Amino acid sequence: MSNRRSSPLAPSTPVAPTPSEHTPPPAPLVPEAPPGASSPASADTPREATGGVIAVTRALQLLEAFALGESHLALAELSRRSGLHKTTVLRLARTLAQSGFMVQRDDGDWRLGPAAGWLGARYQAGFDVQNVLEPALRELSLATGESAAFYVREGHVRTCLVRVEGPQALRHHARMGEGLPLDKGSPGRVILAFSGEPGDVYEDIRRRGYHWSIGEREQGVATVSAPVFGIQWRLMGSVCISGPQSRLPEERLQALARTVTAAATRLSYALAGNTAAPSPGGVRETRWHP
Fold this sequence. Notes:
Structural class: alpha+beta
CATH architecture of the domain at 128-288: 2-Layer Sandwich
Largest sheet: 7 strands, antiparallel
Distance between the termini: 45 Å
CATH class of the domain at 128-288: Alpha Beta
Radius of gyration: 21 Å
Helix content: 25-40%
CATH superfamily of the domain at 128-288: GAF domain
Strand order of the largest sheet: 1-7-8-9-4-5-6
CATH topology of the domain at 128-288: Beta-Lactamase
Order of helices and strands: EHHHEEHHEEEHHEEEHEE
Number of strands: 11
């Protein structure tokens, strides 16, 4: 009798919010608050870090208010998304404009300036994905007590790009660079689902935002995986944890799904370079479209 199992096809209560057009990835492994969620109620309420400079935090809130594909925003919308009063927004926008980070159009709306593009280009030039993936996987492994890995699609197979071994003596081993089937095991299933693969099983994965499997590719091995996105919310791959079925029964996998999706969301934000980016909505080909 086979003991292969995977996430049920019937819709279940999502562990994390499913991406939509107007609400944010990441996250908490799906965004916690969309750019438009805050409201300038009675006073400015910037997301300020302890010991940080409030003016800098507020200025960054304005820059982060622009969603993917939005070329300009009205002052009132910038105020709504940032949670700052219009007078504060106007003062900050004019200050940012002096350095080329924002530009006011003839109709009064504001857009990002050339300095913002220059800064993004410098970031991309010095970006090393390995330096982002390995620490994140190490943190995920410590949080779950299992091995963590990041898989990417290579044609019709998936390969392990980065892996961090878990602390347990008994653990699942995967070889880096080895081609594995996309339709066997949760890492590949997640990649297919968020590449737009049709079918009930993939629709269900997209609704939940993760997938778990037991013994699907390798007898006695259990995994749970979630998608990771990058610049312009293009699908980068899937992050997963794996271990023996004896330690990761169905109930345990479902409990760990929140931790894995949270890690995937943090990775997506790190790769996309914007902690306030809105979550993409809809899947076509290999990319989320807002």
